[in-house]
Amino acid sequence: MILAAGRGERMRPLTDTVPKPLLRIGGAALIEYLIRGLARAGFRDLVINHSYLGDAIEAALGDGGRYGVRIRYSPEPGGPLETGGGIRQALPLLGDVFLVVNGDIWTDYPFERLARSPAGMAHLVLVDNPPHHPHGDFALRDGRLVPGEPALTFAGIGVYRAELFAECAPGRFPLAPLLRRAMEQQVATAEHYRGTWFDIGTPERLQALEARLAGATAP
Fold it and tell me: Do residues 145 and 160 lie in contact, with contact meaning Cβ atoms separated by under 8 Å?
């Protein structure tokens, strides 16, 4: 599942007419990089949720055929349901175990290395803390998600079991409390990825990524 329902307020005015996942960089939309990375890793069935300018996302990506995948959509017409609520609504399309990726990140993470069946309720990918998030989210010890320091940043990439959402009512709610509960119950694992990862949360970060990609492809 690719999460694409956010409004992208911090990206305005860029997102006044274009949903954030469709912002283009290096000749492609942000979400296209994710789709292609997932396809290379063997993921063929994708679910994309959307709310703000959702019709534009469906029009741009279609059924996914040109990427070698099948895309189904989970609209949130009443407004974004946040990460937890969006996943909860899409469960009928996702099955018992599924990967979820934030639609506003750019990374060279090799999705094929993810365990297709987590040892517990959740398995997260963590990265070094970026300047805009210096204190991180979770600590990692012996492959387990734990509280404390030093903390790393959640990359917006995770594998989950549907059971994690079993007690959640439909509606708008965040994912973080569910992850913390899984951590407290010692049923959350994690890994530390040290490769390239960008959280595209502001126009400045988008420009920084564009400059990096231009440098990587320059003759």
Answer: no
| CA dihedral for 55, 61, 65, 66, sign (positive or negative) | positive
What is the pairing mode between strands 70-75 and 45-50?
parallel
Domains of the chain: 2-217 (3.90.550.10)
- 140, 145, 146, 147: CA torsion to nearest 10: 90
Between CA 48 and CA 39, with CA 155 as vertex, the angle to 5 degrees is 45
34 token code pair = 């994710």
Which amino acid is residue 174, in one-letter code? P
What is the full per-residue pLDDT of the chain (219 aa) written as tens digits? 999 998 767 777 767 788 889 988 888 899 999 999 999 999 999 999 999 889 999 999 999 999 999 999 999 998 899 999 999 999 999 999 999 999 999 999 999 999 788 889 999 999 999 888 899 999 999 999 998 888 999 999 999 999 999 999 999 999 999 999 999 999 999 999 999 999 887 878 888 888 887 765 543
Overall pTM surpassing 0.85 (yes/no): yes
Which residue type is seen at 96? D
